[in-house]
C-alpha cells in the first residue's frame, strides 16, 4: 500500500520536524527529507503595521533567540530612519545593542550545547532516552556540575538581555536608530563583580571549562565528532571589514568547501543580488542559495561552523587562542565536520563572554545619546549573525509609514539543505539494509539535525522528546515501519 | 443649607461637596473607583459603565452622578468588581488587542484594569472583528483594532474655535473614530501628542516614535492602576 505522508501547512522556523525516508527494492535510501511543519506567516501579517513596531512584533517569531530578530529588524529600520548601518548609530546605541546580542548569544549557545546536545555526547547516541537529557545530567553525580553551570550561565545571559532590552524575553530595547535605555551603574557593577557565580569572570572561566570538556571528549571519541554526518559544503556569514569574527555587523563573505572565497566584502543591503530562495514542492520552507553558483551548487551552511570558516581571526584573546587550536586541527583548512559545530559554538560562547566583559567596562553604556536619525528611506535590510547563523530582515514601507513588504531569511532556512544532506548521510549509514527502525537509529538522525541547533526548537527544546516521525517506506510505497516520538 | 454632604462608601463615612460627582468625592477621599471613558478636565459621559457603583442599592455611574446627603454607596464589592471585570473582558473580545506588541503596553488603561481585576481568559468568545488601520494622517495613526469607542479623543481634542477634531463615523458595530478632514491639517504636534495621551489604549499613536519608554519605567510597570489614588490618600492621612 502506498503511503502518503501529510505535511501540515507551514513555514520558516520553530516547531516540529518530520523526516521521511524512502527505501528502494534493495532497501537502499531512495529519498530522505526533513520537513518542517508549522505555519507562522510573519512576513504577511506584519504588512500594514507601522514600521517601528517591527522589532517588537517580529521577535515574537521565536522564544529562544528573539533578540536576534529584535536587532535584525531594528537594523533594517536604522536604514529606513536614515541612521545608516553599523557605526551610524551613537556609541551608546550600538554598544547597548551589542551587549544585548552577546548576552543572547551566550545564553542561546549554552542552552544548546549543555541542555540539548551534551546529553548525546555524555550518555551516547544509544544511551537510555529516559536520562538522555539535561535532567539526566542533573541527577548524575559525574555531570551534575555541568547542568548547574548551564543554568547559571543562561541566567547570566538572560539578565544581560533584561538590562538592555527591558525583559529577558521579548523586550523593547532596540528602537529604529538606537536604543531606549542606558545601563545603570548598579547593573554594570552587578554583572562585573556580582556574587559568585554570577559575575563575568566566572562566566569566562566556565566557558573555558566547557571547551576543555569538549576537547577531552573529542580526544576519546574522534569517530563521532570528526566523521559523523560530515560533508563538504559552502559556508556563509558576516565578517567584520577586516575579516574578524563579528556577529553584529559587517560584510557578507562565503567560502566553498576548499576555502576559496566565493563571496567577499558584500554589502548586505545588496543581498538580493547574491542570494535567492528556491521553493520545492514538498516543503514550505525555502532553500536559499548563492545566485552565481545556481540552485544545485549554491546552497551553503550558516552558523558557528560557517562563521569560523569564513572569519580570519577572533578579536578577543582567549577565544582567538582557542580558534588557533581549532584551525590547527584541520591544518588551517575549511572544516566541514558537522559535529565540529559544537566546538565552534563553545569558542563563540567564550568570545561572547569576553566581549560582554569589554563592553561592561565601557562608560558609553551608561551615558550618551540613545538615538540618531537622518534622511528617511523607503527600504532597509538588517543583517546579523544569530546564534544559529546569518539572519536577514528586509522591509519596505509606504508613504504612510506602514510596512508593505517584509522578507525574512532565518538561519534555519539557510541550513535547510545542509540538514537534509545530514539526514541523508545518517540515514544511509544507519538505516540501509534494515527492516526495523530502532530508537538509536532515530536519535542518530536527530543528533545530525540537532548539531545545527535548528530553530524547529519546540522540538529541540525537549531533548529525547523531539516530535520526530520517521516512516520507512519501500519502493512500492508500502510502509515498512513507522516510528514517532 | 450646608454645601457639605455626608455620604458613605463601603461603610466609610466621608464628606463631599454638594453637586460633586461621586467619583470625584471618592477620589479625594482616597477611594479608588475605576474609570475608562472618564478623563480629568473633560465633561463626564458615563458610557463605559466601569465606574458603576450601587447607590442606595441601584447601579449608577460614579462619574456622572452627583452626591446627595445620606447616600449609601457600594463600590469595592465582589459583585461590582466582577461586573467591572466583565466590562473589561467585553472590550478585549470586541476588538483585537495584541498587548505583547502594542506600544501602549505598560501605559494602557485597559490592560492595567485587566491586571487589576485579574482577568485571565475572557468569559466571552472573541469576536475577531475585521478592522483596518488608518495611517493616512501625517501625525497620527488610528488603529481601529484597539479602539474601545470611549470618545475621550472626541471630547478632549479641539481646535482654537472649540471644534472637535475627532468624530464617530458610521453606526452600530461599524462605528469608528474619524478625524474631521476640514481641520485635519490644523493638528499640531502638541495636539497629536495630547490625542495619544488622552486615548486610554493604543488606538491613537504618534507617527515614527514608539517604545521610547523602556520596560520598567512605564506607568503601570510597577504600580497597579488606582494605587496612586489610594497611596496619595494614605500619605496625606485622608484615610
* Number of H/I helices of chain A: 17
Strand content of chain B: 15-25%
Percentage of helical residues of chain A? 40-55%
Largest sheet of chain B: 5 strands, mixed
Q: Based on the structure, what is the oligomeric state of the protein chains?
A: heterodimer
Rounded to an integer in angstroms, the radius of gyration calculated over CA atoms of chain B is 19 Å
Biggest beta sheet attributes of chain A: 4 strands, mixed
What CATH calls the topology of chain A is Cytochrome-c3 Hydrogenase, chain B
- Structural class of chain A, please? alpha+beta
Principal-axis shape of chain B equals globular
Count of individual domains of chain A? 1
The average pLDDT of chain A is 87
Structural Rg of chain A: 22 Å
Overall spatial form of chain A: globular
CATH class of the domain at 4-77 and 222-236 in chain B: Alpha Beta
The chain pair forming the largest interface, with residue counts per chain, is: A-B, 24 and 19 residues
Question: How is this structure best described in words?
Answer:
The complex is a heterodimer of chains A (485) and B (239). Chain A is an alpha+beta fold and 485 residues long. Chain A has a single domain, classed as Cytochrome-c3 Hydrogenase, chain B. Chain A is built from 17 helices and 15 strands. Chain A has helices at 42-45, 54-58, 66-80, 91-123, 134-138, 144-165, 185-193, 200-220, 222-227, 294-297, 304-310, 317-329, 340-360, 411-414, 416-431, 439-450, 457-461; strands spanning 16-23, 29-37, 174-175, 178-179, 234-239, 251-255, 261-266, 275-278, 287-290, 300-301, 379-386, 389-397, 403-409, 469-473, 479-484. In chain A, the strands form five sheets. Chain A has a four-stranded mixed sheet. Chain A has a four-stranded mixed sheet with strand order 7-6-5-10. In chain A, a hairpin with a 2-residue loop joins strand 3 and strand 4 (178-179). Chain A is globular and about 70 Å long. The two termini of chain A are 23 Å apart. Residues 1-14 and 457-467 of chain A have low confidence and may be disordered. Among the domains of chain B are: 4-77 and 222-236, Ubiquitin-like (UB roll), CATH 3.10.20.740; 131-208, 2-Layer Sandwich (Alpha-Beta Plaits), CATH 3.30.70.20. In chain B, the strands form three sheets. Chain B has a five-stranded mixed sheet, with helices on one face. Chain B contains six helices and ten strands; from the N terminus they run ββαβββααββαββαβα. Chain B is globular, with a radius of gyration of 19 Å. Chain B has helices at 22-28, 78-94, 109-116, 152-156, 189-198, 227-236; strands at residues 4-9, 12-17, 52-55, 58-61, 72-74, 133-134, 140-143, 166-169, 176-179, 204-206. Chain B has 239 residues and is α+β, with helices and mostly antiparallel strands. Chain B starts with a strand and ends with a helix. The chains are: A alpha+beta (485), B alpha+beta (239). Chain A binds chain B through residues 48-50, 52-53, 55-57, 60, 81, 165-167, 170-173, 175, 180-181, 371, 400-402, and chain B through 100-101, 103, 133, 135-136, 141, 205, 207-217.
